[in-house]
Amino acid sequence: AANDDTAQLPGMLLSMVRHAHVHQVNLSPLSDTGTRTLVSSCFPREGFTAEFLDLLYRRSGGIPMQPLEYVRFLVQRGVIYEVHGLWINRDPEEEDIPNTVREAIQRRLESLNDAERLLLSLAAVQGHCFSGTLVASTLSQSLTRTLRELEEIGRRTRLLESTERGFRFAHPILADVFCKSLPESGRRHAHVRLAHIIERD
């Protein structure tokens, strides 16, 4: 609830728990064993060192989404890599693992060029999940080219995942980061253009 977009969350939660049918469940952080199990579940086979897993646990504090985002970041950076079907790690430095999920995401975006950033920013106007067809129409370029570019970005950076209906960002924060990277006037224009395309189709 620390950023402006969710500043009303505490008040909303307080008003919700007054209703008889609303129940609050407090979740404890993962243990070091739980964090290891979660990280291991991301790979068919892994041989990560105890020191590496301990570093992931300390940096994440047992918050489940954090080690998952760190894993994506470390795969992209080559700290985690595959050898004959076994995923292993090189000895990481403390600075290899960012302090926050948002920092991990920002550092993953460094590999994108300007055209790729624009492509993902226009995709993010649709939200966490988006249609490649609508992105192509927004850019006025061929669907084949757009899908190829999105699939290549997903393969190289793991920022995107394919779904039965199109694509989705690997983390909801990504959609927020990309959408906000557009200037306000650019966001308005993209929303209006998207609305016209949907209405037309």
Keywords:
201 residues; mainly alpha; two-stranded antiparallel ribbon
What does this protein look like?
There is one protein chain. This protein has helices at residues 9-16, 32-40, 50-60, 65-77, 101-108, 114-124, 132-139, 143-157, 172-181, 184-200, and strands at residues 80-83, 86-89, 129-130, 160-163, 166-169. It has 201 residues and is mainly α. The mean pLDDT is 87. Helix 2 (32-40) crosses helix 3, helix 4 (65-77) runs parallel beside helix 5 (101-108) and helix 7 (132-139) crosses helix 8. It is built from ten helices and five strands, in the order ααααββααβααββαα. 55% of the residues lie in helices and 9% in strands. It has a three-stranded antiparallel beta sheet. Strands 1-2 form a two-stranded antiparallel sheet.
